[in-house]
Amino acid sequence: MKKRYWLAAALAAIVVCWVVLRVTGVIQFYKVSTTSNEPTLRIGKYFFAGRWAKPKRFDFVLYMGKAPGDETKTKWIHRLCGLPGDTLEIRGGILYINGNSPDSSLSLARMYCVSSAKARTLMTKHHLAYATVSYETDVFNLGWDSSFVILDQQLAAREGLPHFTTVPAGRPEKDIVRSFGKPWNRDNFGPVVVPPHEFFVLGDSRSNAYDSRYHGFVADTDVVATVLDKR
């Protein structure tokens, strides 16, 4: 009887602690709603995030940011890549931090140009949730039978696909120009130095993320939680 009492008390304490943590926002449980961090954070999956954990380089952070054309801040999640004082540059789609690239150690998704038939095969074979069949055709000069797919770069390597497709240098993207005043695009960006008390964040799906390349640096005061666990 005594054992049952202590077990019930322990379970009640756990429930109370969980409720308090959730209500106070110290720990939160979230569902991934976008593809901007695939393949690491896949759409529909759940993860925990906590307010007490100080974010470190390459952690995923939740922060308050603005969507294109919207002055209202909403909650976003991306990987923290640049810390105050870092020099960041993207050349040919590859990220460099203080002259070194971390990309080979990260799980990233890239955009690949393939035939339309190959795109359909890949989507069926790997149950891909998304693909883009047309993007800036004037930039890439696609033939009528070409398509773009966004794939995990490790999966793409196993499929024997060629190097991922990038936006050529000299083709500025308006949102990037608006934020940084430079004729850059998502694949040819910088160099920039991260200011004090700010961060630079990137989505793991590098061709499909509206991140610091577009909306600018993230103030450390706008970071609301650090991802603790991914399911």
Automatic annotation (TrEMBL):
It catalyses: Cleavage of hydrophobic, N-terminal signal or leader sequences from secreted and periplasmic proteins. Its main location: membrane. It is an enzyme of class 3 (hydrolase). InterPro entries: LexA/Signal_pep-like_sf (IPR036286), Pept_S26A_signal_pept_1 (IPR000223), Peptidase_S26 (IPR019533). This is Signal peptidase I. The lineage of its organism: Bacteria, Pseudomonadati, Bacteroidota, Chitinophagia, Chitinophagales. One of its GO terms (molecular function) is signal peptidase activity. Keywords: Hydrolase, Protease. One of its GO terms (cellular component) is membrane. One of its GO terms (biological process) is signal peptide processing. Residues 7-227 form the Peptidase S26 domain. It is a single-pass type II membrane protein. It is found in: Membrane. Gene3D superfamilies: Umud Fragment, subunit A. Belongs to the peptidase S26 family. It comes from the Bacteria. Its EC number is 3.4.21.89.
